[in-house]
Specification:
Blueprint (H helix, E strand, L loop, with lengths): L15 H4 L1 H7 L5 H9 L4 H26 L10 H22 L6 H12 L2 H22 L5 H74 L1 H26 L7 H14 L3 E3 L9 H22 L3 E7 L2 E6 L11 H12 L3 E6 L4 E6 L1
Helix pairs in contact: 3-4, 4-5, 4-6, 5-6, 6-7, 6-8, 7-8, 8-9, 8-11, 8-12, 10-11, 11-12
Length: 370
C-alpha cells in the first residue's frame, strides 16, 4: 500500500486503553458472524465456501484499514490521499460484492462496514455520497430480489456513519488544538530567542565598544605614556571580566543593571573615547520602577555616541520621568533603526514609556519619556 506523508507517521505513546483498541474494534465484527454462519451451514456448496472466504477476507481488510488509521494518529484528522484510501475501499467493495453474490441478503451486512470506512478516510462530501449509494442500493437490491424490508439496515448504516463522523470531528478538533499548542510553543521559543539576542547585543555591544576604544588608546600610549597605557590595559582586563559576568547573567536569565553603574561606565567609556562627558551627579530623583529602563537607555545611547556620532561632547540628563543622551556629533545614521534601539523601544513599551529620537543643530538626542 502507498505510505502516508511524514506528518501522518507521527505515533503516540501507547496507553492501556490504546493497547486494547484492536479488541474494541474487533468487537464490532460481531455483525459479520451471521453471514459467516450462513456460509458455514452451506459449506458443502461452492457458493457457501466462497462466502466464508469473502467474509473472512472482508473482515481482514477492514481491520487492516482500521489498524493503519490508528497507527498513523494524525491521518484521521485529515483527508488522506486517494493513493492511500483507494486500495482499501476497492478491496472492501469487491469483497462485499462477493459476499452479497454468494450469501444473498445476509451479505448486505458488509454495507455498514463500507460506510464506516468511507467516513474514516474520505471527505464529508464523498462519504455522504457513498452512504447514499449504499442505502439506496441496499434498498433497491432487496426489493428487486425479494429479500424483504431493509429499513433496519438503512438505519444501521446511517447511525454507524454518524457515530464515526462525530468521532472524527472530535479527533480533528484535538489535532487542531495540538497544532495550536505547538505553534504557541514555537512562538514562545522565537520570542525568547529574540529577547536573548537583544540582551546579548545590549550587553556585549557596549562592552566590546569600550574595550575596542581602550585597546586603541593603549596602543597609542605605549610609547608616549607607558604608565597610562598600563592603566588602560588593566581597565581592559576588568572590562572583559565584567562583560563575561554580564553574559553569564543574561544566559541565566538574571539581568542585574543599575543606573549609577551605567553612569560610571558611561563616564569611563566617554573618557576613553576622548569625548567630553557631562553627567548628572545623582540619580536620586529617578523612581525605582524606571531605574532599569533608564540604565538601558544610558547604555544604548552612550554606545551609539561612541560608535557612530563622531561627537566631541556628550550630555546625559535625568529627570523623574525621562532620560536623555545628547551629543554634538553627526548623529547615529542607520543605527537609528538598529537592533539596539529596537530593543530599547520594546523595553520602554513594556512599562508604558516612549523612545524619542531627534536631530539637533548640531548633534543628536535620544530620549525615553515615561
Amino acid at each position: 500500500m502507498t505510505s502516508l506523508s511524514p506528518v501522518s507517521e507521527q505515533r503516540a505513546q501507547p496507553t492501556q486503553i490504546g493497547r486494547l483498541g484492536p479488541l474494541f474494534a474487533g468487537i464490532w465484527l460481531f455483525f459479520l458472524l451471521d453471514p459467516l454462519a450462513y456460509g458455514w451451514e452451506n459449506r458443502d456448496k461452492a457458493w457457501g465456501l466462497l462466502g466464508i472466504v469473502a467474509t473472512v477476507a472482508f473482515a481482514g481488510a477492514y481491520m487492516t484499514l482500521w489498524a493503519r488509521m490508528r497507527a498513523n494518529r494524525t491521518v484521521s484528522a485529515l483527508d488522506p490521499p486517494l493513493s492511500f484510501t483507494a486500495p482499501y475501499l476497492a478491496a472492501l467493495v469487491l469483497l462485499g460484492a462477493a459476499m452479497v453474490a454468494c450469501l444473498g441478503e445476509r451479505g448486505l451486512a458488509c454495507t455498514v462496514y463500507i460506510a464506516v470506512a468511507s467516513v474514516m478516510v474520505l471527505s464529508v462530501r464523498l462519504a455522504l455520497a457513498v452512504i447514499a449509494v449504499l442505502v439506496l442500493g441496499s434498498l433497491g437490491l432487496s426489493a428487486a430480489a425479494g429479500w424483504g424490508n431493509q429499513i433496519s439496515l438503512a438505519f444501521g448504516i446511517s447511525a454507524a456513519s454518524l457515530a464515526i463522523f462525530g468521532m472524527r470531528t472530535v479527533v480533528r478538533r484535538n489535532a487542531a488544538l495540538i497544532g495550536a499548542e505547538q505553534e504557541n510553543a514555537r512562538l514562545a521559543v522565537d520570542s525568547e530567542r529574540n529577547r536573548f539576542a537583544r540582551d546579548l547585543h545590549d550587553i556585549l555591544g557596549h562592552s566590546l565598544t569600550v574595550i575596542t576604544v581602550k585597546a586603541e588608546l593603549a596602543q597609542r600610549l605605549l610609547d608616549a605614556d607607558p604608565d597610562r597605557a598600563r592603566a588602560e590595559l588593566a581597565d581592559l582586563e576588568r572590562l572583559s571580566r565584567d562583560a563575561l559576568a554580564d553574559v553569564r547573567r543574561a544566559v541565566s536569565g538574571y539581568r542585574e543593571l543599575t543606573l549609577p553603574g551605567e553612569l560610571a561606565r558611561a563616564r569611563e567609556a566617554l573618557r576613553a573615547a576622548e569625548i567630553e562627558a557631562r553627567l548628572p551627579q545623582s540619580t536620586d530623583d529617578v523612581p525605582t520602577d524606571l531605574r532599569e529602563l533608564f540604565a538601558w537607555t544610558v547604555r544604548e545611547g552612550v554606545t551609539n555616541v561612541i560608535r557612530h556620532s563622531g561627537a566631541r561632547s556628550c550630555e546625559i540628563v535625568l529627570t523623574p520621568s525621562s532620560a536623555e543622551i545628547r551629543d554634538d556629533g553627526r548623529g547615529p545614521g542607520s543605527s537609528v533603526d538598529g537592533s539596539g534601539l529596537t530593543g530599547l523601544r520594546e523595553r520602554s513599551a513594556a512599562v508604558g514609556a516612549t523612545v524619542v529620537t531627534r536631530a539637533l543643530e548640531p548633534g543628536f538626542s535620544l530620549q525615553v519619556c515615561a
